Amino acid sequence: MVILPRFVVQLHDATTLHFDFRLQSGDVLRSWAVPKGPSLDPAIRRLAVPVEDHSLSAGEFEGVHEGHRRGSGAVIIWDEGTADIVRDEPGHLKFILDGRKLSGGFALTRTGEKRWILVKVRDTDARPGSDIVAERPESIRSGKTWQELRDPPGDSPAGILAE
Ligand code: MN
Fold it and tell me: Is residue 72 included in any domain, yes or no?
């Protein structure tokens, strides 16, 4: 039996709100910051800025990173699942995602220094005209939005560290 790599997309309210797209490669998560998040519309090309590899445990985090350094702020697990990587060349990746929000083929292509593009492949999972980020803003783990995680009703901000 083949165990497929994992993918996770975290929505991160850091200095600027962005999505972190992470794709398992062995015991690390290759990572890109995607300011506008993924799309299921093949006509939409999303900037994906490569960042350092992260640990597998980083991809399990949902909560609020305290402090003021880069990387602090609320994080939700926006989507996760398996990734069947069908092409892995320098500067070009193609993979089939099986997540709760994202499914089917996607491609990540390097177009410049620190600049990749994430795009949905035209297949039966494509949804032209859709905006999955607006339709489904919530965590697939807790059902909470990042704002609800940051400001839980009746809770002080200090009390919302991840379990
Ligand atoms: Mn981030």
Answer: yes
